[in-house]
């Protein structure tokens, strides 16, 4: 049918088009692509972080009209994408952004797992701290009782088995 009736204001020979609603749509059909290579998200993030991003205006526009993004030369040097170092294809900018989002999501999941592990360790340490407080209270009671009965030797032996604050406790016998 007619491209206008199909919602396409401007159609290209490559399949990309400008919709009648004003949205540029790139062709992205897997069947039209070849030579697929995986993306190392962490390396991409490092390269992306090194690219200067600034606001600017085109010389042909009023200076009050601002845009934001990298320069094509920096983008090309970092990623080697596109036809040249004077243009950035929207599909490439989108692809870099999506790969960066995926890499950040992976980092977020890893940090969530680490936080969960650390939270568990803190809970375990808090439980050990409670147990230590109870043992110290018990020891104080035993020392008091042994002091009342005149058994200073038993109190000294019990005192010798109590670790200093912050020390690791293997086993305490009473």
- Arithmetic mean of pLDDT: 87
Helix content estimate: 40-55%
Q: Quick one: overall form?
A: elongated
Q: Count helical runs.
A: 4
Low-confidence stretches: none
Walk across the major sheet and give the strand order.
1-2-3
Q: What fraction strand? A: 5-15%
Number of strands: 5
Walkthrough of the structure:
Helices cover 50% and strands 9% of the residues. The chain has 174 residues and is mainly alpha-helical. The strands form two sheets. A three-stranded antiparallel β-sheet has the order 1-2-3, with no helix packed on it. Strands 4-5 form a two-stranded antiparallel ribbon. β2 and β3 form a beta hairpin. The longest helix is centred in the last third of the chain and has 60 residues. The termini are far apart.
Compose a concise summary of this entry.
This protein is mainly alpha-helical and 174 residues long. It has helices at residues 41-50, 72-79, 90-149, 152-160, and strands spanning 8-11, 17-19, 24-25, 54-56, 67-69. The N and C termini lie far apart (92 Å).
Question: Which features would summarize this protein structure in a list?
Answer:
174 residues, single chain, three-stranded antiparallel sheet, mainly alpha
Q: Can you lay out the helices and strands and say which pair or pack?
A:
Blueprint: E1 8-11, E2 17-19, E3 24-25, H1 41-50, E4 54-56, E5 67-69, H2 72-79, H3 90-149, H4 152-160
Antiparallel strand pairs: 1-2, 2-3, 4-5
């Amino acid at each position: 049918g007619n491209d206008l009736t199909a919602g396409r204001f401007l159609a290209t020979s490559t399949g990309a088009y400008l919709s009648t609603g004003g949205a540029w749509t790139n062709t992205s059909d897997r069947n039209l692509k070849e030579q697929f290579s995986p993306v190392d998200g962490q390396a991409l993030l490092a390269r992306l972080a090194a690219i200067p991003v600034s606001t600017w205006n085109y010389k042909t526009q009023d200076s009050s009209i601002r845009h934001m993004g990298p320069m094509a030369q920096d983008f090309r040097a970092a990623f080697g994408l596109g036809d040249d170092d004077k243009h950035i294809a929207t599909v490439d900018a989108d692809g870099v952004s999506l790969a960066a989002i995926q890499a950040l999501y992976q980092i977020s999941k890893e940090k969530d797992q680490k936080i969960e592990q650390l939270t568990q360790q803190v809970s375990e340490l808090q439980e050990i701290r409670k147990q230590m407080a109870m043992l110290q209270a018990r020891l104080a009671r035993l020392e008091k009782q042994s002091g009342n009965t005149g058994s200073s030797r038993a109190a000294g032996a019990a005192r010798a088995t109590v670790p200093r604050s912050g020390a690791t406790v293997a086993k305490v016998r009473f």
